[in-house]
Specification:
64% of the residues lie in helices and 0% in strands. It is an all-alpha fold. Bound molecules: zinc ion. Zinc ion binds next to loops.
């Protein structure tokens, strides 16, 4: 899975930059250490984001597998990523059977 690869890459980069920042602090290069520290924060957020995406992809895969087997699983929360981003106005690849793909609710 691509999400797992990005997650591992970001985590490895976080670790390397943290080590580099620590070495820079010990050698008195504080400005460089701050730059590496910012890089650590950025990569840490990227790793957390990929972890969330991986978890969502696994949940959607399990939901689709159960549906293909004839079960009627409850919709995921949020029902789809586009629905969550649009505050329920637009849905795509939605897990809520009452919503159709790319529908727009009229206010
Ligand atoms: Zn939805």
């Amino acid at each position: 899975m691509t999400h797992r690869r990005y997650q591992y890459g970001a985590a490895a980069g976080t670790l390397l930059l943290a080590v580099a920042a620590t070495v820079c602090v010990y050698r008195g290069m504080h400005v460089v250490a701050v730059v590496f520290g910012v890089g650590v924060l950025v990569l840490l957020e990227a790793a957390a984001r990929e972890t969330r995406r991986l978890r969502r992809a696994r949940t959607e895969c399990d939901w689709a597998r159960r549906r293909a087997l004839g079960e009627n699983p409850a919709p995921l929360k949020p029902c789809c990523l586009l629905g969550a981003a649009s505050h329920g106005q637009v849905h795509r690849n939605c897990t809520d059977p009452t919503r159709t793909s790319l529908t727009r609710d009229t206010p």
